[in-house]
Specification:
alpha+beta; tt1808, chain A; 5-stranded mixed beta sheet; two-stranded antiparallel sheet; 3 helices
Length: about 110
Amino acid sequence: YPDIVIFCGDAKFEDNEFDTLTNPVIIMEILSDSTEAFDRGDKFAYYRAISTLKEYILISQKKIRVEQFILRDDNKWEYRSYEGTNLVLNMESIQCELPLSEIYLNVKFE
């Protein structure tokens, strides 16, 4: 399951368990050592098959870095990388901006 899901309109679920949303617009994953390769590879490939998905966002827990994949009209995924608390993540599909300083607020790195 994704760490964070954003959807627009009514939530649509796979079954009556209400634990698998089928119409996400944005999916976010918090990267960890044990899941990073899967999140970047097979999991992203699975998510790309979801017709409503417009953005896939990976958030590092090791350093200030957010990676964003945006589905464009030509069905190609545009890659953007953000590093630094002075930058702002622009989630175009929901017309929302989120400063990296807010994402990493009170986070202490080892």
